[in-house]
Design a protein that fits this description.
Largest sheet: 6 strands, antiparallel
Number of helices: 3
Order of helices and strands: EEHHEEHEE
Strand content: 25-35%
Strand order of the largest sheet: 1-2-3-4-6-5
CATH class: Alpha Beta
CATH architecture: 2-Layer Sandwich
Shape: globular
Length: about 150
């Protein structure tokens, strides 16, 4: 189920959509991010960065966060204003603050590195002003991408 709302006015553009806990929903997510970025004139790097960050968060929520098979498991909201895209990523998975994940040791040999953890690292590298909170049954991560 994909519910989409796209609003435009002189000062604000917003897109909200909901995804089920199924990795097949990644195609819908990419389409919606592309549509939002096209409406904002944010093609190229900004579109790639938004897609990568949201893809990583969604994939983690489905694979590791308890959202697999859950209807309306993830809600994503994009707001473009004041030279940035503000992203709110909410999932109904188990409580998890991605900001507490230690950074990976990128200098260690591959065989000595811990498995996983690069997705959160990519999100931290791409996005700014990351904040996490738990709202009822939802994990909520807010962040910004300067444009």
């Amino acid at each position: 189920m994909l519910r989409v709302r796209l609003c435009h006015n002189r000062h604000l553009s917003q897109l909200s959509f909901t995804l089920n806990g199924d990795l097949a929903e990644l195609a819908h997510m990419m389409t919606e991010v592309e549509r939002f970025c096209a409406a904002q004139g944010l093609m190229g790097d900004p579109q790639f960065q938004l897609t990568l960050a949201i893809d990583e968060l969604f994939t983690n929520a489905v694979r590791h966060g308890g959202c697999k098979g859950v209807a309306a498991a993830v809600e994503i909201r994009l707001d473009a204003a004041d030279g940035a895209v503000r992203v709110e990523f909410r999932d109904r998975g188990t409580p998890f603050d991605p900001l507490t994940v230690p950074p990976p040791d990128l200098k260690a040999p591959l065989e000595e590195r811990a498995k996983g953890g690069l997705g959160v690292h990519f999100v931290r590298q791409i996005m700014q002003n990351l904040q996490y909170d738990r709202c009822g049954e939802w994990n909520r991560l807010t962040m910004e991408l300067p444009t």
